[in-house]
Amino acid sequence: MKIINLKKEFEEKIIKDTLTVLKNGGLVIYPTETCYGIGADATNPKAVEKIFQYKGQWRGKPILIAVASKQMAQNYVKINEIAENLYQNFLPGPVAVVSKSEGKVVSDIESTTHTLGIRVPNYPLVLKIIKAFGKPITSTSANPSGKKTPYSLEDILKYTSKKRLGLIDLFLDAGKLPLRPTSTVVDTTLNEPAVLRQGEIVIPDIPGQTFVSNSEEQTKLIAQEILEKYKNLLISKPLIFALQGELGSGKTQFAKGLGQALKITSNIPSPTFIFFREYPYKIASNQGIFYHLDTWRMEKGEEILDLGFKKMLGPTNVIAIEWLQKVKPILEEISQKTKVCLVWVTIEILSETKRRINYCTAI
Amino acid sequence: MKKNFTILAIDTSCDETSAAVTDDDHVLSNIVSSQVEFHQKYGGVVPNIARRMHQQLIKPVINEALKRAGKTIDKIDALAITVGPGLAPALEVGISTTKNLAAEYQLPIIAVNHMEAHLLSSFAKNSKGNGAFSKINSQFPILGLLVSGGHTQLVLMKNFGKYQLLGETVDDAAGEAFDKVAKMLNLGYPGGPIISELAKNGKPKYELPIPMVGSKDLNFSFSGLKTACLYKLQKIPKKQKNRQFICDFSSSFEKAVAQALIIKLKKTIEIYQPKQIVLGGGVISNITIRREARKVAGKFGLRVFVPYTQKLFTDNAAMVGVCAWYQAQRGDFIKNITTLDRQPNLSFTP
Question: Rounded to a whole number, what is the distance in Å from the CA of A82 to chain B's nearest CA?
Fold first, then answer.
């Protein structure tokens, strides 16, 4: 392992030596605004293989890459609205942005769902190196898996075996780095604005009704009133309320109202994290289970089938689904093949206190 | 009664498949599926939903936990399994695996409440015996504040096994509020770490309502704060939503969440006069929340305890193993294994 002291060497020479190593598929340890990272040509399978050997058990786990700019990133991932915001405002910096990969890097460093995490390190020399190299380099912390995050050459020499150190060609020594935490990774592929919009429903021109709610309490009462209209159907089929409305429009309030109508006394909190909650209910006419689902954290709508959605479709059961956009095709298919009563509910924000609630039944 | 137990603990309450081996309150290993990659062992791609369904991951996770602890299953005295609260189909996988292991190796089962395990996570010690409570004895009552993606709870612990739920969220959990506001700010998922990171470079200059500040009970609500953020953000022209604005807004939001938690924490301390405070759950990774909790506890001369490693904040099986050891000491084993079932809505019962 060759060591270059960055304070004592000319920048041109540093860049030239580093490029030689990268072009030959070698490994370079370099400073960033967080810890020392280990770099290899992210498009060279042999170079990436060496990274996995060095990291140890990390094989198969996605590895971040570093690029010099958003323009360069665009060659390797699809940048959506969320990613655009992050690149615009927070890069270069200690934030790693996960997007859909274009498949131009070694596939082992992508995630299993073909996403790729990108860093633009806030370290001018490193950006110059990547720009001159013209390709992304890996950007994972320079410690073998399970060892201390390295902030100095000493850290690496102390915690890394000789065999592993033998894999490193070059160390760009910037001395002891400030102890800043490693970069924060954010995934921009969940709930892309475009995807949520795609599923928006054009309300069919069939008998339905529109209410205006002036408070959360009123939203609950409207939900009760709507449930009342369909209650007699419960003897023969389940009722599904498919709820559409942006963040903060009151979908959970609507579900709480359904729960009240079903005489459920326990609290009905948001099911976002847990995907669904179930509440047994008993009213004069019948008894069953109220399922409260939320697709917000689901990558794909199909996940509701894996969660046992079809088993929920027994008569007398009432189902409320928040963020119906992701499951709309599934619901449409089910409503054609299975005996269910599907009620589309859209909640629109009119003002800080006003909501327009529309419902209609799929025929 | 036997006092020492080597426990194999399993937690499949929601996203994570986790297994751990604990020796009494010492954590020997703690494997969490998202933090370790197993692809070579079962050869293939594991999409998120399969991860949540746990079937493919549970065996390799258990084997890895035993291996890292340097134990074989014949050295295990009991099995611990989370029975709730959680996602029903996910809980089922852990429970059926545990039942099979119990039958095969003739091991007793301890059924664990996932939230009780979070509450006791500060009592965990590492393999060398170091932990938050290693030099200080517990003094009851202890007040627990549990904050995560799915839960926000205040729990009074009168002793091990004696709990009273004092307050919880009536709508969104605190962690969920972080995710949703991050979405409004176009910051991606998960929202907690990125908002906390950006808040460091911002000032809390936007006024947001502190949820439930006037309510007399000890419950939380974060849905109103979420909506207030939405209205505030709608009024700001897109052009003004630059780096500094996002950092300042993140800081303002983080402060409002911390205040909401701290106001209720303070109120609870005044009413129930606990001797110690414990924190648990993934959201306590947020340093502002930890700092504010310490500040208010300090005013009452109380110490705040947090788990010895961040790995014990988020969902993990080691806390389940530690909780199970306390249960084992009081003979709290499952008597009839066939009736052991998931309890997705499990809560603290007095």
Answer: 5
- A314: three-class secondary structure by DSSP: coil
Domains: count for chain B: 2
Rg of chain A on CA atoms, in Å: 27
How many CB atoms neighbour CB A261 within 10 A? 21
Per DSSP, the residues of A44-109 read -HHHHHHHHHHHSTTTTS---EE-SSHHHHTTTEE--HHHHHHHHHH-SEEEEEEEEE-S-S-GGG
Which CATH superfamily is A195-361 part of? Answer: P-loop containing nucleotide triphosphate hydrolases (3.40.50.300)
Whether A339 and A272 have beta carbons less than 8 Å apart is answered as: no
Q: Verify that B15 and B48 share a domain, yes or no.
A: yes
Segment-wise mean pLDDT, segments of 10 residues, chain A, 363 residues: 95 97 98 97 96 76 93 97 95 96 94 91 98 97 88 94 94 96 92 63 63 94 94 92 91 97 96 94 93 92 89 95 91 90 92 92 69
Which residues of chain B does A89 touch, with a Cβ-Cβ cutoff of 8 Å? 242-243, 246
Chain A residues lying within 8 Å of B226, measured CB to CB: 247-248
pLDDT in tens, B94-146: 999 999 999 999 999 999 999 999 999 999 999 999 999 999 999 999 999 99
pLDDT value, residue A146: 77
The angle subtended at Cα A250 by Cα A245 and Cα A251, nearest 5°, is 65
Q: Is A275 on the interface with B (CB under 8 A)?
A: yes
CA distance B226 to chain A (A): 7
Fold classification of A2-189 is DHBP synthase (3.90.870)
Domain of B125 in residue numbering reads as: 6-131+311-339
Delimit the domains of chain A by residue range.
2-189, 195-361
A299:B47 CB<8 A: yes
Q: Is A213 on the interface with B (CB under 8 A)?
A: no
User: Are B180 and A247 within 8 A, CB to CB?
Assistant: yes
Both tokens of residue A238?
Answer: 């389940």
A14-31 residue pLDDT tens: 999 999 999 999 999 999
Dump pLDDT digits (tens) for B10-61.
Answer: 999 998 899 999 999 999 999 998 766 554 444 344 445 555 668 888 998 9
Q: Which of B173, B183, B198 sits opposite A273 (nearest CB)?
A: B173
Burial status of residue A77 (CB atoms within 10 A of its CB: 0-12, 13-18, 19 or more): buried
Residues in chain B within 8 Å Cβ distance of A273: 14, 148-150, 173, 175-176
Give ipTM to 2 decimals.
Answer: 0.91
Contacts of A253 in chain B (CB under 8 A): 223
Same domain, yes or no: B160 and B55: no
B321/B203 same-domain check: no
Give this prediction's pTM: 0.92
Q: What number of other Cβ atoms are within 10 A of residue B44's Cβ?
A: 10
